[in-house]
Amino acid sequence: MEEIPVKVAVRIRPLLCKEALHNHQVCVRVIPNSQQVIIGRDRVFTFDFVFGKNSTQDEVYNTCIKPLVLSLIEGYNATVFAYGQTGSGKTYTIGGGHIASVVEGQKGIIPRAIQEIFQSISEHPSIDFNVKVSYIEVYKEDLRDLLELETSMKDLHIREDEKGNTDGVSPCCPGWS
Q: What residue stretch is flagged as signal peptide (predicted)?
């Protein structure tokens, strides 16, 4: 069987101020010196990477994303998939604080990756680069590319070839290839 190079990371965010004010309790704990978390009293889960509530944007990026960006620059495809319930910290990890005024240390994955990719491109003027980016939102089983205004309200479909390889996400439009 072919190995699928997928790595899974979990990041645990601290309680928000309003959660602490309402006496909410942390229900996910990191097992020290392991890549495991405990949910509730005894449900243990193992991941490739575990980031506790005090982890930084820099740690997450350098550990999980920087290797993907370096591979991307060498010509490989890369995908980062953020999953979690509303309020779990996906937007903060992916984008950071408010994008227009984010402090350097709070920059998320996207601004860091963009900076690194285009810095590398500028350092290699003799190489032709073709950069294609999608920012797909999956919400209630609907797919939407947040960077494409023309497709933001159209149905998007994940295409697979006869071998089950994903060929990309396309709008449901006649003549799309």
A: none
